[in-house]
Amino acid sequence: MVTAKLYPDALDICNKWFDEGHIITYFTSRTEEHRLVTEEWLKKNGFKYHALLMCKPRGGNYHWIDNHIVRATRFEGKFTNLIEVDSKIQVFEK
Asked: Which of 4, 15, 44, 90 is buried most deeply by CB count within 10 Å?
């Protein structure tokens, strides 16, 4: 973890979103015992962020339940500017 390399463009894009006023929260499968090394890595590499959530379920089959709008951005191999697309989502029945 200490020697993890940056994804190309990740720092520029994520810090740009932060500077634009987006709330940046990193959600990781790393456990609490790895919090300090993760925070130090983010700081050493210059990432701006508001929060760090540890212990994300592995496998990607989970739901984030919130009473506010939550935007999820799926990483697909390259950090670029965001575009809008129509996509199906699951919501609670009314």
From this structure: 15
What is the rounded end-to-end Cα distance, in angstroms, of the chain? 44
Q: Which of 36, 57, 39 is nearest to 48 (CA)?
A: 39
pLDDT of residue 71 exceeding 90, the answer is no
**Structure tokens that stand for 1 in this block:** 């973890």
Domain housing 37: 7-94
Predicted structure pTM score:
0.80
The H or E element that residue 53 is part of is strand 51-53
Distance CA 3, CA 47 (A): 15
Identify which of 6, 77, 13, 65 has the alpha carbon closest to the alpha carbon of residue 41: 6
Residue 37 lies in a domain: yes
Instruction: Examine residue 55 and state whether it is found in any structural domain, yes or no.
Output: yes
- Total count of domains within the chain: 1
